[in-house]
Every structure is written in C-alpha cells, then in structure tokens.
C-alpha cells in the first residue's frame, strides 16, 4: 500500500514540474514543499517497518510427568571383587620376578626377590653381637654365683655382691637386645622375598627385574577370589541411592559383545571425588557373570537413576533468573515467558523439574540464551 502511495506522489510531482513551465515557480513552491514532506514521512515509515525483527522459530517440548526414572549408560572395566596390592616392605633393587600378569599363584609362593647381600651381612653382624652378649652374660652369671657363695663367710663386702648382680643384669639385658636385633635382621632378610598371601590370580604387574623400588610401592595386584565387579565413574553421586540394599539391579553387557550380559548390585560409591577428573568411582558386583566377562574387559552399565517424580526436559532447556534455574514457556499468544523452577535431579543430558511448570506447557528446548521474556516466537519442531 505504501509503495502505491509513493508512486502516486512521484507522478504528481512529475506533473507539477511539467506544469511549472507554464506557471510561476513561486506559486507552486508551497505545494512542492508539502509533497516533499509527505514523501519523506512515507520513506521513514517504510524503513521502520523493514527493521522490525521477525518472530524467532523455536523448538519445544510438551511437559509431561515422567512415568519412570530415566536411566543412563556408563562404560566401565571388569575387575576382581577382592584385590590385594602386593609390595615389598623394604627399599631395594629387584633381582628376579617369578610371575607375570594372569598367573595363578598359591599362598606362600615367591613372586619377586630383592637383593639380599645387605640383609645377609646385617644378620651375620647381629648374630655375632648376640654371641658376644651371651658370653658376657654367662661370665657375669658365674661371677655373681661366686660372690653369693663368699658373702656368708664375710670374705667380700656387700657392695661387691651388689656390683656383681648389677653386672649380670646389664649383661642379660644386652643379650635380650642383641637377640631382638637378630630377629629383626632375619625379618629383613625374609622381606627381600615377596610372597603371595593367599591363592589367587595376578591381575597387574607394576615392576620388573632390575628396577629399584621403595618400601610400599605397588609390585603386583592379586585377585583373591573369582567374584567380579564392574567399575565406572559418575559425575554426581546423588544420582544413586546411598544404601546398596535399596538400589535396583544394574544391567551390564560386554562392550565387544552386547549379547553377553548379566545384572549387578551396587557395592559402594567412593566417598571422595578423583582430584584429576572430579568424578566418583562406583563398584557394582556382578551376579553370575559369563566367562566372556574376563578381568580387564570393557562393559556398558545401564545405571538406574534415583530421582523424584517430575517433568523431564533436556538440559539445554535450562536458563537462569538470578541464582534460580528457569525455563522459557510458550504462552497462548506465542510469546516466550520465563518461569523459575525447582529441580528434583538431573543427568548429563536431562533435568527433572519438580515445580514451576504444569503438564501441557510448551517448554522451549533450544536457544534459550538468546531469548527475552515476552519475545514473539514461532513454535517449530516438537521434540518427543
């Protein structure tokens, strides 16, 4: 309509200029000024109309109460149910390692050996000291016995008897101390051999022959039973019940062959997050696992999530109003209205809203960071 109006005035001006050839220019000047003002106003109106932002198309989801708690899938590793880390109790250099990963060992079996020359020398020195202390104790005992026999006849003074008794007690103490030193040296020599504390399977080897290790440094990991766990990490421990007796069963399948599957029961959740990944370790005990689920194999875990009832929406639908979570809802006038909500829980890809929206509300699920309250939108793709 505005374009037709503009064309009309342009034709009028053209007609006026043609007429001006025959008439006085001053007589037509007011009419020309009025026509120019009208054209200017018409052009401004067209520019303002062209700059108006069109309604934004948005994706949305109709809010519906969750019929069941959503689950989430994690990838974990099959490990032994009972694992023992084996380490030397002394510093030293490993001279031999008798077993490799996967070896089945028996209680008392020697697994690795440290250099023992120093231990043998310490034992020899302690033994010599003990023999010397024993000889001194025997001599002090003979002297005390002699003094006790001479005392009744008055051949010696009382102080000489007391001195002989003190010498014997001192020698006896040195003998006990040297005997303890011998036992310590024997223990140190025995500790140069790392033995299996129980029957089991070696699941990890952390050192080799020729390597210098410290006391307490891991050398082997021993699985002492045939029971198996699957171990995986989660970002939020609140997703799982604290008490394992209340946890529903986990579905576990072999990553390389999903047909190999079993169930598991929550064993424990690490009380502290890993400082590197900021995740919590979860262990699930497998119930009658198939033979294909060998130690070290990767498995997928369908993890039942513990959440309160509510409306499940994609995590991308969440926005904020100050410090409170919020979502945008499409009203009857196709305008985006923001509402603060209360969250009942969340996973890596979704959130459960406990209050703030109602069943049937159209919740915008994408691009919420660019929306403004009251903005006109076009409901586009409906997400399931």
TrEMBL record:
Residues 248-303 form the CusB-like beta-barrel domain. Residues 86-223 form the CzcB-like barrel-sandwich hybrid domain. Keywords: Membrane, Transmembrane, Transmembrane helix. It comes from the Bacteria. The chain crosses the membrane at residues 20-41. GO terms for cellular component: efflux pump complex. InterPro entries: Beta-barrel_RND_2, BSH_CzcB-like, MdtA-like_C, RND_pump_MFP. GO terms for molecular function: efflux transmembrane transporter activity. Residues 312-369 form the Multidrug resistance protein MdtA-like C-terminal permuted SH3 domain. It holds the Pfam family RND-MFP_C. Belongs to the membrane fusion protein (MFP) (TC 8.A.1) family. NCBIfam families: RND_mfp. This is Efflux RND transporter periplasmic adaptor subunit. It comes from Kosakonia quasisacchari.
């Amino acid at each position: 309509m505005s374009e037709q109006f503009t064309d009309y005035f342009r034709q009028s001006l053209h007609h006026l200029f043609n007429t001006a050839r025959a008439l006085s220019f001053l007589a037509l000047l007011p009419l020309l000024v009025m026509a120019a003002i009208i054209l200017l106003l018409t052009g401004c109106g067209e520019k303002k109309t062209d700059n108006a932002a069109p309604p934004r198309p948005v994706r949305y989801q109709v809010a519906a109460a969750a019929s069941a708690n959503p689950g989430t899938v994690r990838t974990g590793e099959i490990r032994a149910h009972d694992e023992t880390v084996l380490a030397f109790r002394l510093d030293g250099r490993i001279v031999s390692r008798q077993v490799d990963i996967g070896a089945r060992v028996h209680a008392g079996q020697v697994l690795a050996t440290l250099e023992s020359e120093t231990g043998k020398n310490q034992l020899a020195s302690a033994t010599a000291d003990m023999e010397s202390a024993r000889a001194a104790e025997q001599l002090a005992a003979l002297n005390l016995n002699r003094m006790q026999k001479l005392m009744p006849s008055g051949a010696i003074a009382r102080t000489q008897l007391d001195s002989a008794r003190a010498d014997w007690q001192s020698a006896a103490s040195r003998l006990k101390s040297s005997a303890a030193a011998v036992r310590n040296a024997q223990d140190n020599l025995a500790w140069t051999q790392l033995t299996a504390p129980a029957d089991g399977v070696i699941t990890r080897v952390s050192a080799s022959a020729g390597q210098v290790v410290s006391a307490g440094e891991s050398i082997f990991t021993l699985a002492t039973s045939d029971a198996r766990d699957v171990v995986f990490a989660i970002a939020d421990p609140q997703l799982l019940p604290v008490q394992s007796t209340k946890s529903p069963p986990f579905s576990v399948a072999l990553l390389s062959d999903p047909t190999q599957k079993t169930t598991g029961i929550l064993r424990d959740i690490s009380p502290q997050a890993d400082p590197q990944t900021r995740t919590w370790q979860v262990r699930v005990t497998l119930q009658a696992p198939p033979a294909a689920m060998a130690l070290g194999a990767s498995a997928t875990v369908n993890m039942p999530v513990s959440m309160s009832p509510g409306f499940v929406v994609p995590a991308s639908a969440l926005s904020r109003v100050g410090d409170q979570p919020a979502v945008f809802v499409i009203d009857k006038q196709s305008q985006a209205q923001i509402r603060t909500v209360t969250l009942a829980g969340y996973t890596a890809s979704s959130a459960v809203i406990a209050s703030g929206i109602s069943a049937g509300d159209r919740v915008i699920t994408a691009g919420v960071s660019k929306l403004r309250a009251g903005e006109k939108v076009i409901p586009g793709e409906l997400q399931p």
